[in-house]
């Protein structure tokens, strides 16, 4: 279980993360979505004890990362893209990490199989493709068989087969009671992987709900043409739908295609067209993260508006195709916000994938009160392979 409560990080006047509150729960894969510079990495770094919050709390299984008793066995994390020394083989990298966290070497072989790198285990990591490096990162995160997985942009560089592999892996993890939090800057990339979605923009959460709600709201718009549009309009409104038109077809929100077809049938109006707009996830996402996010559109239809214009005025003849307005329905929880640019790169020496080794380092977990995570002196030599960057580097 991951809980972020009013989590805030200010760098001078910049509030990189501003009052972020959400949970990622066991049994579900939660997507953490935001454009570059929106505050994802800063949030994850605070969650992983690598950066001290200005205020608020970030908890894993009810405690701060630094207070976990056996972090490597409880949390597996990949922050940013990276691998071990490029001259090291995938197997050698995993073996080193396994030794660091006290995991049996046999698990290395299991994981190489699981992530599809068994055939490339002896290949130099430096020769791995981006997708292979992602697989190696995920394997490293899984070394300690942790219940909580935190992955920053894990789908980056994966081909469709890789995405399918990652989906299965994360679903399996969630099915067995694991908690998964993964970030991305592309909703479409995450859409196949996640159950819940949290959208962050300019350091604030704009939307947090099951992905199905986002889909539900997006797919609620029907485009309908029939012989008697006025009668259809009335019938749909009487059924509680919101009806509009582009001058050619009716645009109906709040009915399923089945309902709309039945209503038209009962009204005795032959239909010529009934289409459900495919959800344009990227457009929804962009609307949600836009500084001037549009007013939320209710997922369910509001009561019929007695002031609706007469349908007869809305169907000029001759009818011709007019582009459907690009306005996208937005779920009801949009919130306000602030701003932010891209994250920094890690230093050359910090190429290793993940936090498994950080999790294994007692130094990192020690001294609550000090910002151990931002002081390289407190990081053991092994942490040179971490992907994470120190605050001072930014
Ligand atoms: N150490 C730092 N000092 C000053 N500003 C910082 C620091 N770290 C991050 N920021 C700023 O905080 C904001 C959020 O950055 P962050 O890296 O968290 O975004 P992100 O969503 O992870 O972006 P990306 O997808 O590009 O990694 C940005 O404006 C960034 O410049």
From TrEMBL:
Pfam families: ABC_tran. Keywords: ATP-binding, Nucleotide-binding, Transport. It comes from the Bacteria. Residues 296-315, 321-394 are annotated as: Disordered. Residues 322-368 have a biased composition (Low complexity). Transmembrane segments: none annotated. Residues 384-394 have a biased composition (Polar residues). The keyword Nucleotide-binding applies. Belongs to the ABC transporter superfamily. This is ABC transporter ATP-binding protein.
């Amino acid at each position: 279980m991951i809980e972020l409560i009013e989590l805030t990080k200010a760098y001078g006047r910049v509030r990189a993360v501003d009052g972020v509150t959400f949970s990622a729960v066991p049994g579900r894969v939660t997507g953490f979505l935001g454009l570059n510079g929106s505050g994802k990495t800063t949030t994850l770094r605070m969650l992983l004890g690598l950066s001290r919050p200005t205020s608020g709390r970030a908890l894993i299984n009810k405690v701060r990362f630094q207070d976990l008793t056996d972090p490597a066995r409880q949390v597996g994390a990949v922050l940013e893209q990276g691998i071990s020394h490029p001259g090291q083989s995938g197997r050698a990298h995993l073996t080193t990490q396994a030794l660091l966290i006290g995991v049996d070497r046999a698990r290395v072989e299991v994981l190489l199989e699981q992530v599809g790198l068994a055939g490339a285990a002896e290949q130099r990591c430096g020769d791995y493709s981006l997708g292979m490096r992602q697989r190696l990162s995920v394997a490293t995160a899984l070394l300690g068989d942790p219940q909580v997985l935190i992955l920053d942009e894990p789908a980056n560089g994966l081909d469709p087969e890789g995405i399918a592999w990652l989906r299965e892996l994360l679903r399996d993890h969630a099915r067995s009671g694991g908690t998964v939090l993964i970030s991305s800057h592309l909703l479409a990339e995450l859409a196949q992987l996640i159950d819940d979605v949290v959208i962050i923009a300019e350091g604030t959460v704009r939307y947090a709900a099951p992905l199905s709600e986002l889909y539900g709201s997006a797919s609620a718009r029907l485009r309908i043409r029939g012989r008697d549009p006025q009668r259809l309009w009335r019938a749909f409104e009487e059924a509680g739908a919101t009806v509009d038109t582009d001058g050619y077809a009716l645009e109906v929100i709040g009915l399923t295609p089945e309902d709309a077809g039945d209503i038209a049938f009962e009204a005795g109006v032959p239909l010529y067209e009934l289409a459900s707009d495919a959800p344009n996830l990227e457009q929804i996402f962009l609307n949600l993260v836009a500084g001037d996010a549009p007013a939320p559109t209710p997922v369910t239809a509001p009561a019929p508006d007695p002031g609706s214009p007469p349908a007869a005025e809305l169907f000029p003849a001759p009818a011709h195709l007019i582009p459907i307005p690009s306005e996208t329905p937005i779920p009801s929880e949009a919130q306000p916000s602030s701003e932010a640019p891209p994250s920094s790169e890690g230093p050359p020496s910090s190429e290793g994938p993940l936090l498994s080794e950080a999790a294994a380092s007692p130094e990192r977990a020690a001294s609550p009160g000090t910002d151990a995570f931002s002081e390289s002196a407190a990081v053991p030599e092994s942490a040179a392979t971490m992907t994470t960057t120190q605050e001072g580097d930014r």
